[in-house]
Design brief:
CATH class of the largest domain: Alpha Beta
Radius of gyration: 31 Å
Structural class: alpha+beta
Number of helices: 25
CATH topology of the largest domain: Nucleotidyltransferase, domain 5
Distance between the termini: 62 Å
CATH architecture of the largest domain: 2-Layer Sandwich
Strand content: 15-25%
């Protein structure tokens, strides 16, 4: 029997997230910003799909209860948790769906999201059948979203729109003027429409208003563009339908899993790359002539491996049959790199195998011998003497050119390079032909934030110790690797430091560049659409959720525990910064474990420190054994700024303070 069982307790989403990415999506379906939690990226895609479905009136989690809602200050969904009874292996169970909501017609809908392989399990199939049956009994619908139906391309377009739906004071006036210069149904890019109003309003506000109108129209089903085929930008022609027109509904999600793709015998016109074994290769890095030849070879090998005959494929692609056979054999051994022109070709070596083994052993020594040192090493002469004695003829030591060729051959093996450089782990082979960074369509769409500590002993000119450890946080754009904001503190970072970091990302850096005397400009300013962070307290606090999700409508994603590789961009930045401070900066001593000894040897001092109250550099002075700033007014009384400022701490959270 299928029934709703309110007695069933809800679940803690973030505890069951495990190794997946969790976070919050700001929902605007009800007219106000409501946080919606997710515990996987497919659930995040499903929420944004529902957010921009014109026939969805409201939605909420169906698997959370009163305890989870109270802990995270969420409005308790009606009938939560929404339990559905089902039978599996002869035993009754209760099933909590991911999303439950109402359509504009008032009917119920139930939505699930997950990996297709997982949803094909026997238990999940029984859950889906129970939810489907309940939805039909109430004349509703049941949707299943998987990685095949909730595509990343469409998701990034929806994220792009969702980040531009925040209102601002001048929006109403600009929107009214926009209706006069951009009629319904006219195809025009955003840059052209913005030029029609640039003489009436500031250009940044005009473009922001246009994108908000486009995003609101997409949520109402009045945007004429295929989000599955085109990436949104300023030059893409767009058109809006009238408010009284019938909404354009996206392709519905299926209520059952799609049939598994069958591996049929390929025809000449297709290019089934999924049949090619081994590591993949990104052809976009090749020059144009080699890229075309690579894709031709890859297409031909894929067709042969899919079942087409070599003769027909060779005739179609214009490749000699013997060459195609060799490409197929080498691709099975080496992967897609074999299809690159001269990518895997190696001339047969003339160096004796004994010398090859000796060069390999010397190359892997921890002393990191150079090519000349390997060629002149005594072991090379001992091997030559042993071979000469065994053969009865003189065997010369390999020349420098031969040693260089062998060393370059060894450098092509990632495992050996990792052993030589004493890497903690062997780098994984490339498994996808697509670059993750290149798949991000716009800057600031996906950002990463992290905090880092560095052992630096900071003292004043008179020798007073300030700190032995420096704390830093950085907000980085993943697509461009641009630093949107950075904060440095002599003590542990707090929530206010995270807010300053976001403030720095939103504001221009001209004043900061002038105050610091930088030689280069810092033109990196923007509002992040997604902020990806770890489980640090300053990133997961309630105050951070209030500011990022509730106020600025930013999607936040939380990395799985003990997974620093998920934030590879910001981790690489911190590693580079640490190396520069410890090894490259002047007046530093590398190799000294004691921070105090290192500071005394390098003579590093900090004469002035930025005051957190006024954001100016001021000298520290000792007062009763404590380092303090000299008495001065705070920034709000000192700096006559007339524009809106940052957030002030109050009872209702973080709100803008008028200047």
């Amino acid at each position: 029997m299928l029934m709703v069982a309110p007695a069933v307790e809800g679940i803690d989403l973030f505890k069951i997230a495990g190794r997946s990415i969790s976070g919050w999506v700001p929902s605007l379906k009800t007219g106000t910003t409501v946080r919606q939690p997710f515990c996987s990226q497919l659930e995040e895609r499903l929420m944004l799909w529902l957010e921009y479905h014109p026939l969805v009136a409201s939605y909420a989690r169906g698997d959370i209860g009163q305890a989870f809602a109270s802990a995270y200050r969420l409005p308790t969904p009606k009938h939560a948790p929404f339990a559905i009874g089902y039978t599996f292996e002869g035993q009754p169970h209760d099933y909590l769906p991911d999303i439950v909501g109402r359509l504009t017609s008032g009917k119920l809908f139930i939505a699930e999201a997950g990996m297709e392989d997982d949803k094909r399990g026997d238990r999940n199939l029984a859950k889906a059948e129970a939810a489907r049956h309940l939805a039909r009994l109430q004349r509703g619908v049941f949707w299943i979203g998987t990685e095949r139906t909730l595509t990343r391309f469409r998701h990034y377009n929806l994220v792009f729109l969702h980040a531009r739906r925040q209102s601002f004071p001048a929006f109403a006036d600009i929107a009214a003027a926009l209706q006069e210069v951009w009629p319904w149904g006219e195809m025009a890019p955003v840059c052209e429409v913005a030029s029609r109003l640039e003489h009436q309003f500031p250009a940044p506000l005009v473009e922001a208003a246009i994108w908000k109108v486009v995003a609101d129209s997409a949520a109402q089903g009045r945007l004429l563009v295929d989000l599955e085929q085109f990436s949104l930008d300023r030059t893409l022609p767009l058109a809006l339908l009238p408010t009284d027109a019938s909404p354009r509904v996206p392709d519905p999600l299926p209520d059952t899993l799609l049939p598994e793709p069958t591996q049929e015998v390929a025809t000449i016109g297709g290019a089934p790359l999924g049949f090619i074994p081994g590591p993949t290769f990104d052809g976009s890095t090749l020059p144009e002539p080699q890229r075309e030849q690579f894709h031709r070879n890859l297409r031909a090998v894929g067709l042969v491996l899919a079942g087409a005959t070599q003769t027909s494929v060779a005739e179609k692609e214009g490749i000699p049959r013997s060459t195609l056979g060799r490409l197929v054999r080498r691709t099975k051994q080496r992967g897609q790199i074999a299809c690159v022109p001269h990518g895997s070709y190696r001339r047969a070596t003339t160096v004796h195998p004994a010398f090859q083994e000796c060069i390999r052993r010397l190359y892997l020594l921890p002393t990191l011998l150079s090519m000349a040192a390997i060629q002149e090493h005594t072991e090379m002469h001992q091997v030559a003497a042993r071979l000469s004695k065994a053969s009865g003829t003189r065997v010369p030591v390999p020349s420098y050119k031969q040693v260089r060729t062998e060393v370059n051959r060894l450098k092509m093996e990632p495992d050996l390079v990792a052993v030589r450089e004493r890497a903690k782990s062997v780098p994984r082979e490339r498994e996808s032909a697509e670059s993750f960074v290149l798949s991000i369509p716009a800057p600031a769409l996906l950002t990463q934030v992290d905090e880092h500590t560095m052992e630096l002993y900071v003292v004043t000119p008179d020798g007073t110790t300030v700190a032995s450890r420096v704390h830093a946080a950085v907000l980085v754009c993943v697509k461009t690797a641009a630093i949107l904001g950075a904060v440095l503190s002599l003590g542990p970072l707090k929530e206010e430091d995270y807010m300053r970091l976001l403030k720095m990302a939103l504001e221009p850096k001209d004043r900061l560049v002038l105050a610091s005397g930088c030689q280069h400009a810092w033109p990196c300013t923007g509002k992040p659409a997604i902020v990806f962070h770890d489980r640090g307290k300053i990133f997961t606090s309630e105050r951070a959720r209030q500011v990022l999700v509730d106020r600025f409508q930013i999607i936040t994603e939380q990395a799985p525990p003990y997974c620093p590789s998920a934030k590879g961009t910001v981790e690489s930045l911190f590693r580079w910064m640490t190396q520069r401070f410890e090894r490259r900066l002047p007046n530093t001593s590398y190799g000294v474990n004691s921070a105090q000894t290192s500071a005394q040897a390098g003579g590093m001092t900090l004469e002035e420190v930025e005051c957190p109250d006024c954001s100016r550099t001021r000298s520290l002075s000792e007062h009763k054994g404590v380092l303090r700033f000299p008495s001065h007014d705070r920034r709000k009384m000192q700096t006559p700024v007339t524009s809106k400022r940052w957030a002030a701490r109050g009872k209702t959270g973080w709100d803008l303070v008028e200047g």
